[in-house]
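[Solved] Which block belongs to which protein?

Original post:
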Amino acid sequence: MISRDELTGMMTYTNAQLRSILNGLGYTNQDEMADATFPLSLNDSPLTNSQLVQAIQKFQLDR
């Protein structure tokens, strides 16, 4: 059976994957992220700190 996401072409990402995407595209910098594996992130915690909220907002505006 085909899932709804497959029909709409949407993808889902973990919080760590989204952090890695934002890091890789330059929406965050290593100084802001306390991640030893920057730009890759293993941090799957909620995306609620102010730096990440701002990065997500910038990403949405640039789309």
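(Second protein starts here: sequence line, then its structure tokens.)
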Amino acid sequence: MSIGQKIYQLIEQFAVEPTFWKQFTNAFREVLVDQGAADDLAHKMASIAFDALRLHSGNDYHLGMVEVIAMHPEFEQTMYQDIAAASAMHKYMTFCMDLNHMQLAAGYAEH
């Protein structure tokens, strides 16, 4: 499974059970560390992501995560301290965009 898919699945799990802080942050951290990110930065990113997603007002947590990646100053600053972490977030966003395009294409094919 690609890094983008792994992060996507974590966000999907969060959408179902947003109260499992320890599970989410541990899994998020592990995915980043497995990609070569420093453990302390990965943990910080996981905590920031959890807090931001918990406060996200919409139902689309993937959009919420994209907003965190693109616009959360502390997350962005932390992410750009580690090339592996930044690469993982880029791969997640690319996976989301590719999936969205496939879903749109499938929808158009049905009409």
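Accepted answer:
You had them paired correctly. Confirming on the second one: The mean pLDDT is 89.
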